[in-house]
């Protein structure tokens, strides 16, 4: 297991191994501006590279020390996944001493893809089925599936290697009509955002969309740093009517995968249905770059997810979140985590207050968490709020 300190070498490795854009060097640099640090490591079997991972480390209040987190990683072929995650846990424990490691790989669950609109109950039964093959190897390495999800595993991934007509046929009939109508709309264009004034319009739409859909957003500076640290891997695409930005989708792109970070539309864009054409234009745009997968980034039971579902006849399920405890304190932290995440919906100050309370009196905070968890409806709401926040990265 060896660290990598060269950006070009690392990104070449991620792209050549089919890695996710959240494993690119720039994403680690971005998160390093916000109380995280990044360690990029390569797993070898002799001279052969069998895996790699960008590990993010977050300092936690005492006595927890830190947490290791691997967003949409590591990279490893199926036959190597068990030993790669085992080696990764051994490395971070020895090198950084965190209380635990959490991985959220970009690996499809064995039962994926799913039929469109599969029920939560049906999905839960499939998840609960005994693991086999490579997933059993991951669990044998000491990892346990967790409901403390950061990145949503239920999603929609469109295969953009197919021709455009085939992709179009998978859209619902009304969606196809809206796409074609938006492409013919007068004084409308689609393209990459390159001007500061257009970026300002995008950020305004993002805030407006967040207010309408009731989720939190990062600062303008954070969004600007996505562009700065990710470089060409950050691709902000917009729809204009004249000089006005009316819809946008913000992608991060690796060699194989395009991943939606954010998207939004203002009332004028909704009236013209330009958010439909924008999605299809974005898929065509990344297809031209040789990208194979377009990931819509998460499906919940909400209006935004209903909109996403119109672009395919299936859904996808990634393997989800897996934790490995590296300290006896990890179960305490894991119990408190949903409380901290749910407060993020009310903003960072509220979350910091919760963390401070946890630091001063962990037992009292956890007792409150257990009491709140008795209500199933409250628990579902908290998990959805956490998912919406964590979708923002």
- Superfamily at the CATH H level of the largest domain? Gcn5-related N-acetyltransferase (GNAT)
Shape: globular
Main β-sheet, in a few words?
8 strands, mixed
Number of strands: 17
Label the CATH architecture of the largest domain: 3-Layer(aba) Sandwich
What is the average per-residue confidence, as pLDDT, rounded to a whole number? 88
Distance between the termini: 27 Å
CATH first level of the largest domain: which class? Answer: Alpha Beta
Instruction: Please bin the fraction of helical residues.
Output: 40-55%
- Summing up helix and strand content along with how strands pair, one would put the structural category as alpha+beta
Beta-strand percentage?
15-25%
- Detail the poorly predicted runs: 344-351, 363-393
Number of helices: 16
Pfam families: FemAB (PF02388)
Family: Belongs to the FemABX family.
Protein name: Peptidoglycan bridge formation glycyltransferase FemA/FemB family protein
Keywords: Acyltransferase, Cell shape, Cell wall biogenesis/degradation, Peptidoglycan synthesis, Transferase
Structure report:
With 393 residues, the protein is of the alpha+beta class. It has helices at residues 7-16, 25-31, 81-95, 120-128, 133-140, 164-169, 173-184, 196-213, 220-230, 267-272, 274-287, 303-309, 330-343, 348-360, 362-372, 376-391; strands spanning 2-3, 36-45, 48-59, 66-71, 75-76, 100-104, 114-115, 144-146, 154-155, 157-159, 188-192, 234-241, 244-253, 257-265, 293-295, 314-317, 321-325. The protein has two domains: 2-109 and 131-148 and 321-391, Gcn5-related N-acetyltransferase (GNAT) (Aminopeptidase, 3-Layer(aba) Sandwich), CATH 3.40.630.30; 157-311, Aminopeptidase. It contains 16 helices and 17 strands. The strands form three sheets. Strands 1, 2, 3, 4, 5, 6, 8 and 17 form an eight-stranded mixed sheet that branches. It has a six-stranded mixed sheet with strand order 10-15-14-13-12-11, sandwiched between helices. Helix 3 runs parallel beside helix 5 and helix 13 (330-343) runs antiparallel to helix 14. The radius of gyration is 21 Å and the shape is globular. The relative contact order is 0.15.
